[in-house]
Amino acid sequence: MEIAKLTDITRVYTIGEVETHALRGVDLSIGEGEFTTLVGPSGSGKTTLLQLIGCLDKPTSGKVFINNEEATGMNRNQRADLRKGTIGFIFQFFALVPTLTAYENVELPLLLIGKKNNHKARVMELLDAVGLVDWAEHRPDQMSGGQQQRVAVARALASEPLLILADEPTANLDTENGEQVMEIMKKLNEETGTTFVFATHDPRVIKYAKRVITLEDGLIIEDKNSGK
Amino acid sequence: MNYILKMSLRNLARNKRRSALSAIAIAIGTALLLFMSATIRGEMRGALDLTINLRTGHLQIHAEDYKDENMSLKREDMIEGPLEISGQIEEIAQVKAASPRLNISGIVAFKNETIGVQILGIDPPSATNSMYIEGMVAGEYFSTDDHEGVLIGLPLAESLDINPGDTIDLIINTSEGDTDEQRFTVRGIYTTDTPAYDKSTIFMPLEKAQTISRTDNYASMIYILLHDMDDTAAVKDAIQAPGYIVEDWVELNQLIVIVEQLSNAMMFFFNLMVLGVTSTVIMNTLLMAVYERTREMGILGALGMKAKQVKALFLTEATLLAIGGVLIGLAIGVPLVLYYAQVGFFLGDMGISANSSFMFGNSIYPYPTVGDAISVSVAALLITMLSGYYPASQAAKLEPVDALHSNN
Ligand SMILES: Nc1ncnc2c1ncn2[C@@H]1O[C@H](COP(=O)(O)OP(=O)(O)O)[C@@H](O)[C@H]1O
Ligand SMILES: [Mg+2]
């Protein structure tokens, strides 16, 4: 089963007179249950590609399908609806809402998608999965970077998405915390079958991936299954 | 608690000083408007009250062509047998007092100085004079058959250095078209706290005023005060005065009524100005917040927050600021207005002529009303919420992806 499919994607950023061709014709298919990494040097188009898969952005040309539904023609609100419960995000920086506690951050996607019933059990289960039950009532500024990123992982999982997109989730973490976050993601991938796609250029992270897609100058130059 | 409300509250708590300053701006605006509206209302009411009490009465009977400012002594401009008419009118239950008044123009001469004055012939025992009797500051009030006594106002006494018992010369117009000069004794000095009036009005017993002006058995008008001004229309209908006309305080104070409308319109623009400043502050605060939280909006967008929820978030923040600000404004403004409504504030002589249709006391007593407090609060609330609308729409317009690229 295919979760995301992108055909002949280009993305050109125009700032004033300057055009940047961030993606120059990418075909990509992400299957259910994958644990895939996008690698490549800085500026190669990893973030751009993740945002297109996640329907946060629209391609300049080409088509994006999520669960066989074409997202390319949708407006902002329709894309938001499509993302709901389907796609979760983990970002590199400042990913938590600073005014909310760990518990509230994890609960937020559930509130945003309009789940009214009691979230407590679900939220605590997620915090438990990332080892932060005791930190439920803490705010981001009271937590370490690693802890914050684990909360972000729990939050990305809250609405039980089919696909989680993570953009350099370990870039700001030391080795120990980085590996801890990767271990958690790997475990969740195996236990829940949630699909993960993460961008990185950290070799320590790459080793966790089953599939490694290499980008360079806006093109996929290698797509390798590690066989794990 | 609704999560939008919770996030808004926390966002306001994020930058406590900025939120507090914004709320204070709204509070000051609200308090200022509350104070202004009560002051203008008090001023208008005060002016109307004074004019009714000193000049027009609630109702007045006079000849068709009579005009207050002319002080005409022609028979056709006057009322014949005024005491009988006023006696009948006093029989009407709602009437507090009715009494003839005779307006004559004249000149006071004291030592080497002369000053133009209005001589008002009044029936000394009538309750219509209670304001002057209560306002006596020196000497004594006069009696009906006093043929040599007058009362003068405090500012006139001070400027000419006249004391009770002193004599002054009065040159008085008569109905025959000439003047008569006689010497009078100042029995007493009064004040109504209305400098323009007190400076230029001299009281004389009606009988003597009629004799000296050759208008025996005539008066300029019948001046009528009611217990309750709401009865004006009813009493007006009940009055029988064939050959004369009856006018009520609204007709007699057209100018004040117009000025009051004008001042309401001015108050409206003043409101707009104050609230315009307030709304600029709020808009600025919220725009700064939108700018600072651009990246956060991107994250929220990626998590599934929709444009209208983002808008709701900022509008809620504006509304909370507005409610907080208005409540503080009321907490400051209401006691302040109530205090000044009691003690008033002193203005002194505003230099407005006694002959103008406007009477100003030397103090203003703000007159707060619940209606004004409500309309000021609602206006401040609405304007603040409206000024949150633009920043909120800006925030809602952010595409998550652009927001994520932002450096904030
Ligand atoms: N919002 C943007 N506006 C203009 N140029 C952009 C924008 N985002 C990315 N780019 C450019 O597109 C190219 C690819 O960027 P990006 O997808 O962020 O690469 P990576 O994540 O691999 O570092 C880079 O040259 C970058 O400068
Ligand atoms: Mg990147």
Automatic annotation (TrEMBL), chain A:
> Which SUPFAM superfamilies does the record cross-reference, listed alphabetically?
P-loop containing nucleoside triphosphate hydrolases
- Which family does the record assign? Belongs to the ABC transporter superfamily.
Superkingdom of origin:
Bacteria
Question: GO CC annotations?
Answer: membrane protein complex
What GO molecular function terms would the record report? ATP binding; ATP hydrolysis activity; transmembrane transporter activity
Q: What is this protein called?
A: ABC transporter ATP-binding protein
Tell me where in this chain the ABC transporter domain is found. 4-228
Q: Which Pfam families match?
A: ABC_tran (PF00005)
Query: Which lineage?
Result: Bacteria, Bacillati, Chloroflexota, Anaerolineae, Anaerolineales
The UniProt keyword set, sorted, is: ATP-binding, Nucleotide-binding, Transport
UniProtKB/TrEMBL annotation, chain B:
User: What are the alphabetically sorted keywords of the record?
Assistant: Cell membrane, Membrane, Transmembrane, Transmembrane helix
Q: Where's it found, cell-wise?
A: Cell membrane
Q: Does the keyword Protease apply?
A: no
Top-rank taxon: Bacteria
Q: Which GO terms describe its cellular component?
A: plasma membrane protein complex
Domain MacB-like periplasmic core, by residue range, is: 19-241
Q: Please state the protein's primary subcellular location.
A: membrane
Q: How does it sit in the membrane?
A: Multi-pass membrane protein
* Entries under Pfam families matching the protein: FtsX (PF02687), MacB_PCD (PF12704)
Q: Which residues cross the membrane?
A: 268-291, 312-333, 339-361, 373-392
A GO BP entry: lipoprotein localization to outer membrane
Domain ABC3 transporter permease C-terminal per the UniProt entry, residue ranges: 268-400
Q: Which PANTHER family match?
A: LIPOPROTEIN-RELEASING SYSTEM TRANSMEMBRANE PROTEIN LOLE (PTHR30489)
What does the similarity note say? Belongs to the ABC-4 integral membrane protein family. LolC/E subfamily.
UniProt name for this protein = ABC transporter permease
